[in-house]
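Structure tokens please, single chain.
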Amino acid sequence: MHHAAPFLVVHHKSKYRGFYDVMLEWVSLNLPAARNFFELRALPWSLPKGHRHAVMIPWLQDPVEQWCQRTYGQVMNLTAECDLQNVPVVNRPERLARAGKCSGADLMGKSGLRTPRVVRIDDLDKLDALGFSFPLFIREDCGHGGEMIRADTPAQARAIPLRRFKKPVAIEIIDLPGPHDGFYRKYRYVTAGDFGVPHHLQVSTQWITRGENRVVNEITRAQELAYIEAPCPHHDAFQRARQALGLDFVAFDYSLDREERPVVWEANPYPYLHFSRKELTYRNDAMHRTMAIVVAHYFQRANLPQPPKLAQYLEASKAISPKVGVERVLESPVGYWQIPPAKRRHALRRGTDTVRDVLRQLRKQLPGSTSRKIRDWYLPGL
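Here you go.
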């Protein structure tokens, strides 16, 4: 009998993201026996005869059909094979598009969470007919981290070049600065099956809150630690949203309104996962917890017992939901989990990210046709 690894992980050979290297390295370092459970294969791939795969895990940027129809066809063929042989699929590829801005807001809203109003738009003159109020911003319906263009007036909206986007959507801006300091806060909560864990809190002076413009000081550090080290009171609400999206693994980015209720900006089935090595190392325990619940979910879907070290951690970590034990005394003692060492390819990844940022800025300054070529050649999937 061959192909004994129960976790079949498939990826696209030219879009294999480095942070999943980090996940496999984390498993190798912290749960070495479990590393043998992972079999990594590039698409196209078919289930071989005599396989013993217990779960299929596509590690593919969402939604697959947007950046490569051929890859989408390949992974859907493999998904059909898995269905015929009763092999569960984590984050089924045909459901990834449900996390798009428009459908995601609708589905999460129906699950009970507050979301901004989102509509697809092909003519900015139609905003008035849609009854859209200002301010608003335009961005891509699918994908993450792309361009976001704000408009505070109808004139500013009409000046936005929609040709920059493949499937533009107009999104209501719900302005939620902190009542005491005026800073904007974006929380991230990660769900993996029934598990959930607070992942990070980014504080910014700008309404677009991303890692590159975060405010880092003693106060924001204390606030982030308080968030990531405690169970999230909104866990059940995020679980209902995850189920409404039809996904297994998803990160929710949200803010809190004045009544401390979450306002969800987007759901991300393919979040960027990495360990910090400089000023944000205090966040690494949250990354360990994220890795732990993802791996635990794989064992759960494969109907296999959790590795003892992982099971003990899930039981003891107070930040991981749902709560299992009555007393939780183990959080993350020194040496319990280790961080994968930095490798040259991670440095190259950071360099690639820098180049991509420069190209994004250049794209804004160029004519439409040239801009689209840059996007298609160098920034696929954004």
